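Ticket #4471: structure export looks truncated?
Reporter: QA, pipeline team
Priority: medium

Steps to reproduce: submit the single chain below to the structure queue and open the exported record.
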Amino acid sequence: MMVLVVGGSGSGKSSYAEKMAVSLAQAGMRKYYLATMQVFDDEGRKKVDRHRKLRNGKGFFTIEQPVRISSALEKMEDGDRAVLLECISNLTANEMFSEKKAMTEIQVTENVIRDIKMLKEQTNHLVVVSNNVFEDGITYDETTTKYIRAMGKINQKLAALADRVVEVVEGIPVIIK
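Actual output as written to the record:
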């Protein structure tokens, strides 16, 4: 089963997604947390620390994989597994801007979706966290606008791939699909 969990910053989507991944994992199933955030400053470190505390005691094996998310499969043990991928907005930014020349919206969308499909095919359960980054109504520079458009395309494609889509609003899960 694939579940897409979306929401705004601070909405409670990460906590919900962790609970979902734990509930989907059957006895003896390995649980993996794929962390995509690259830490550049104190604020990033605090966010990572907060997420680690949330996962503490839940049995997740953390794999830091900021790009090419399907490469994490090589770091997992064979057998049944539930995977929590946190999060698509970081992964998209890392993919789009990590090379010397930024990828196009189309390239980054194709790369991210291809890798997510591989994860979905090779795991029992996949819970994917993504952000709503399109709702503030602000006009951005061209590069940021391309990133936001790529995120929109990726979220649409992920929603189509997912068995279940949940938007977390103010800590309340709203079932979309």
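Status: closed, not a bug. The export was complete when the record was re-opened. Leaving a note from the reviewer for reference: The chain has one domain: 2-175.
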